[in-house]
Amino acid sequence: MVSEWETLVAGDxxxxxxxxxxxxxxxxxxxxxxxxxYPIYDAFxxxxxxxxxxxxxxxxxxxxxxxxxxxxxxxxxxxxxLWSLYAAEAGADRVVAIESLDDSVRRAExxxxxxxxxxxxxxxxxxxEVTLPDRASLCIAELVGCIGGSEGMARVIExxxxxxxxxxxxxxxxxxxxxxxxxxxxxxxPDGPGVPEILVPYVESVFRAAGGFFDLRMCVGGVGYEAIRxxxxxxxxxxxxxxxxxxxxxxxxxxxxxxxxxxLLLWLDLQGRAGGERLDTLATRTSWLPVxxxxxxxxxxxxxxxxxxxxxxxxxxxxxxxxxxxxxAGSVRRTDCRRIQVAAxxxxxxxxxxxxxxxxxLFSAEKxxxxxxxxxxRRPSDPAEVRP
Length: 388
Fold this sequence. Notes:
about 400 residues; alpha+beta; 11-stranded antiparallel β-sheet; 5-stranded parallel β-sheet; globular
């Protein structure tokens, strides 16, 4: 239950967000902001990825099997230089690691000197902007968002194939699908939505990175297949080794359980290499949390088995030319042939604020900044306190 509200500031505007407890309970549904799309990584977020055994096992297998003898390019190596170090240890011929955040570049350079002297070159900048002297035969890019393509990986890999990779170069991960099903967040969180207090600074950081308040993408931790009420279908199918990036299309979900529906749940089905193990992030707890996309334009719906949600999904690049915006439009076809029009969107930035039922409940109306109130500057201090 929302017990208090916390003030957030972005530019000259402020809002309040509802708080539910100090830290998330990993065994109960809870909300997280989706942060991977924005340059707000800190020690806690890097620790969460580094400690994610299921996520890392998929990449480790793909790197160890394909790196020996290869010229390797890692895009977005972070401060831990994890996959570049694995590639070098596995027998890669040469390794180049690209990183855009200055602090991460410095730490990665130190690790390269200490653990693989002369074998890993760290390049500062964005992969879409830097120029490299040689082409690579294996590309590793852990740029997969909680919606698979939301961090702009399709655009990044297309550019890398043109400018940085040899013909026929392999990419890790091999394939990422974003799956969808119907869900009812109101039933999962009957006391109303809120954000654990320790995660509030990340909510504010997303707004500041985006330049203002909007209906930011929210993830739901602590849920699995028991939460969904329909069949499943893919809204994205990114096949990086085939150059086939399907983002959008027709989505058809048939209700399998009776009950309320107020949105869609999106999650990943990922393969590190062709023929390798698949990671289903709704079946396995990872740092890739499922995304909740609230439906708008309709009253809360109670649906029956056999009712069908039919949506047209579109994906278009946002204003930055890298990160996609996702939109859903269509209807619910009831078994008695009645239709209910529905729509949804999950945007990188710039959408209306408090348009969706979730965001209207989670945030107060924005207003000019109160000069007497300071914004939060605190970050989670102990990564062990927070688990997805």
